[in-house]
Design a protein that fits this description.
CATH superfamily of the largest domain: Beta-grasp domain
Number of domains: 2
Number of helices: 5
Radius of gyration: 15 Å
Order of helices and strands: EEHEEEHHHH
CATH architecture of the largest domain: Roll
Helix content: 25-40%
Length: about 160
């Protein structure tokens, strides 16, 4: 089966089997290795991508479901001129990055949240990130990073 979709702003075509997961297509065929496999059960959030702007677990998503859709991975989240996106910079500035394994999923979940709610409360941030597990930082610095990113995006820094 052949599918066609937009990935990180670029049209892509791929030949897949009916059993190909979106995660495998992204990592193995497109070499977009920022999307990680943690649990393989959709529980940890390491494989989070944005599908038409919504966070989804790519480890559970059949690649066929990408057909005709818009996919954003961490590699596609760039600021102007290839600089870090303000969300990425806020994670660094807040000390919300430790080992980095969960970071791409956390950042994409943050983008989905801030695209729909530019000024979230702490509890709204916690709910938005509830599908992402971090084993290193705890969540205080991550919530701080999301709120900092929201502030910076509102003033367009």
């Amino acid at each position: 089966m052949e599918i066609s979709f937009i990935c990180n702003g670029r049209k892509r075509m791929a030949a897949i089997s009916g059993e190909t997961r979106a995660l495998d297509l992204l990592r193995e065929d497109l070499n977009l290795t920022g999307t990680k496999e943690g649990c393989g059960k959709g529980e940890c959030g390491a494989c989070t991508i944005l599908l038409d702007g919504k966070p989804v677990s790519s480890c559970l998503l059949p690649a066929a479901k990408l057909d005709g859709r818009n996919v954003l991975t961490i590699e596609g989240l760039k600021g102007d001129g290839g600089k870090l996106h303000p969300i990425q910079q806020a994670f660094l500035d807040s000390g919300a990055v430790q080992c980095g394994f969960c970071t791409p999923g956390m950042i994409l979940s943050t983008k989905a949240l801030l695209d729909n709610n530019p000024a979230p409360s702490v509890s709204e941030v916690e709910v938005a990130l509830s599908g992402n597990i971090c084993r290193c930082t705890g969540y205080g610095k991550i919530v701080e990073a999301v709120l900092l990113a929201a502030e910076r995006l509102q003033v367009k820094i």
